[in-house]
């Protein structure tokens, strides 16, 4: 009697259940890592929240939707980062669920599971799971846009235009890369007979009206702020460097997707035992239009993003790796054929689980072991709550006023703005970035100026002393890391700017 793995049988019988189990387990894993090993937000999340607290229609961080949602989640969780982490994981879940529905429409429910599982390994290495921001929010919106675009073009469902218009408008309110992604949708629609037939109706005009209404406030802000400028084209002498930069971006995407060829190699016939009959995951025949749709949106966003980023010298791929690689797993499944044998299912399952868990394990090991090497800091090991509580209470005791603003080193100042009082962030080195707080207003309301202390006297850096010539430095405050190890304590120099009239 031949036995089949329980997972294979569940993929055949309950494909949607497998998808939900996989994405929920991954979300739970990352939430556990955040709650246990993150004492401060990752990346620029603290600065994002400081901007979100102001509810500006637009900032130099880009469109406002991600910034607003982060602040709403933070407030809803009672001033705890857990709310923002949950929001980031909800975006991950929505991305994979939307991808599953799109893949099911193309290759059937069973192979759609394989597409989702492959994509999970890819995004695990190429994009952040907890650093919520525009790139994280763009992923589910892009996945939903692709799903409804296929329903409109490939399945001729005319009732999907309203949802499409809402998602397009929200994507434009999330990231500037939305223009590039939406342009790709227009190019595909114009290049295919099914797409041109879809565009001949009046529904696309109504959808454009909805999109225009959604983005109108941000468009007005862009025009008033006079910040809408195209990046300058590189000089001829810069082309070699830009081409090298583009090749590094391409290499980063390829490296992030390395698990997919590894799994494909392990599932090849070379590892099949003699006489073994591998279980088959089958699908209905894929239509040519569906095949073209998958291949186009698996290749065009990535290649186009690399070219644009390389040409203009952007640090990352336009749209983010998570969005431009979203269709790669489905493209591999489409290319694999109507029948996919699952050889050595136990080995494949182990490698897949290791690939999905590896980034989280890397975060844990880095938090626990790197401090003992003394070679660098782990930003998420800063005691954000202790830092914000100390400076808020110190300012209140010294001035008998509530702390209203924080300036100095942006990373440290952003952590202090996470306190329950939510003081304003003032980026004194670039005041235009924080229009809600000017130097004159900061002098009037008072606040705390912070910096990394380089000596026991807490001498301010020259640039901070130049911008705040009258400050008197206090004794630096030392804070312990999550794991101190061999590295020095986190010493923060600080000074109080007293409110006028005190």
Automatic annotation (TrEMBL):
Keyword Phosphoprotein listed: no
Keywords of the record: Cell membrane, Glycosyltransferase, Membrane, Transferase, Transmembrane, Transmembrane helix
GO molecular function: pentosyltransferase activity
A single GO cellular-component term on record: plasma membrane
UniProt record, GO biological process: lipopolysaccharide biosynthetic process
Transmembrane segments: 17-38, 82-102, 108-125, 170-193, 205-223, 243-272, 293-314, 320-340, 352-372
Major localization listed first in the record, in broad terms: membrane
Location of the protein in the cell: Cell membrane
Record-annotated Glycosyltransferase RgtA/B/C/D-like domain positions: 63-221
Its membrane topology: Multi-pass membrane protein
Domain of life: Bacteria
UniProt-listed Pfam families: PMT_2
Name of this chain's protein: Glycosyltransferase family 39 protein
The organism's taxonomic lineage, starting at the top: Bacteria, Pseudomonadati, Pseudomonadota, Alphaproteobacteria, Hyphomicrobiales
